Amino acid sequence: MEVKKCKMYDDSSIASDEAKIHIKKLLQHLNKKDWQDTLLFMLPQLSFNELNAVTNSNGRICSDVIKGPITILNSIVKDIKERVPFNAIFPSERLNLPTSGENSDCDPNITIHVDEFLYNDNDIEELLNAGKLQQYYCKNCGSKNIKSLIYISHSLSQDALHYIFNHLLPILKDKTILDIGSRLGAVLYGAYMYTDAKKIIGVEMNKDFCELQSKIVHKYNMQDRIDILHKRIEDAPDTIKSADVIVLNNVFEFYLSEVEQIQVWQFLRTTMTKGTIVVTKPYIEETLKHLNTVIKINEWLRRIKEPQGSPAPNLFCMPLADEQGKYSDIASYEVL
Ligand SMILES: C[S@@+](CC[C@H](N)C(=O)[O-])C[C@H]1O[C@@H](n2cnc3c(N)ncnc32)[C@H](O)[C@@H]1O
């Protein structure tokens, strides 16, 4: 019985090696556009390691044709768009619009929720040009007295993920990354694509989002390193303690009352362990400014001023620096 199992395994690995050779040959004969279409069709069947087999002689993924993780992330985006409403907010969610702080102007009548992971700047421009999104609202109907609508994203953009994992953070080989409030899973997929972290954990209190993440993780064979926990972070102290890196993208402001936000920040203050790296958007100083948490940030966290990532070109030949100050509201800290 055991021998048979081994043989089957051997046969299938020979077959897959042969398949790779055929696929490589096939791809060599396609033009750039057809390459991309074909890969978008094939990617959900490939794991990241298998994808690495499609490299050129320098060992780099053929970046003129396929931008590795970007292509996979784009494919994931396409899948998620088919599964969520346009504003990426599930009916099961109860948004709690802020009444104090920077975002207290988010009146539901003039606030549009557009998810940056699903729609990048170019997509938004296209939607605006096509009249599918509006940029302004009229303060006195019929007059030219117009004002910009407020755009809110509840996920990190692909560019921001690239910046965080390739530039801001050090190499995370064998480390554990925790995303608190993992929502669509953007941080989880970004961490999977851009790092060698041993474990990537998403904690999310909304069941529908956990199910969505789980479908994507399985479709793209990421379950070897990604775990999804359907719970409130307050109920996961051991997960917090196990993390080397914790990502907090404006996680509580739109979802919890001010009293709950104060409690959860105090819980994080006492639960995170010394040496953990914390990535926040916006700066934690900004988030806590209008909450009466009595947390002394400088006794809890030390801001890491210099990006820890290597400035050398990475495998996918992507620009690394925050050239236009696009990510100036993202900061990293070390827990003291
Ligand atoms: C702004 S989204 C962050 C999305 C994701 N981390 C990213 O950057 O793309 C915040 C998410 O946190 C979840 N959330 C809020 N409070 C939570 C809590 N106490 N425990 C677990 N999840 C929470 C919300 O349901 C929401 O999906």
Low-confidence stretches: 1-11, 52-66, 311-320
Major β-sheet strand ordering: 7-6-5-8-9-11-10
Amount of beta strand: 5-15%
Order of helices and strands: HHHHEHEEEHEHEHEHEHEHHEE
> How many strand units?
11
Overall mean pLDDT stands at 83
Overview of the molecule:
- It is a single chain.
- This protein is an alpha/beta fold and 336 residues long.
- The chain has two domains: 2-66, no CATH class; 165-335, Rossmann fold (3-Layer(aba) Sandwich).
- 38% of the residues lie in helices and 14% in strands.
- The chain is built from twelve helices and eleven strands.
- The protein has helices spanning 2-28, 32-42, 48-52, 68-81, 121-129, 158-168, 186-194, 207-219, 237-242, 258-271, 284-288, 297-300; strands at 111-113, 136-138, 146-148, 150-152, 176-180, 199-204, 226-230, 245-249, 277-281, 301-304, 331-335.
- The protein has a seven-stranded mixed sheet with strand order 7-6-5-8-9-11-10. Strands 1-4 form a two-stranded parallel ribbon. A two-stranded antiparallel sheet has the order 2-3.
- Strand 6, helix 8 (207-219) and strand 7 form a beta-alpha-beta unit.
- Residues 1-11, 52-66 and 311-320 have low confidence and may be disordered.
- Bound molecules: S-adenosylmethionine.
- S-adenosylmethionine (SAM) is lined by residues 117, 154-156, 179, 181-183, 186-187, 203-206, 209, 232-234, 249-252, 255-256, 264.
- GO terms for molecular function: methyltransferase activity.
- InterPro entries: Arsenite_MeTrfase-like, SAM-dependent_MTases_sf.
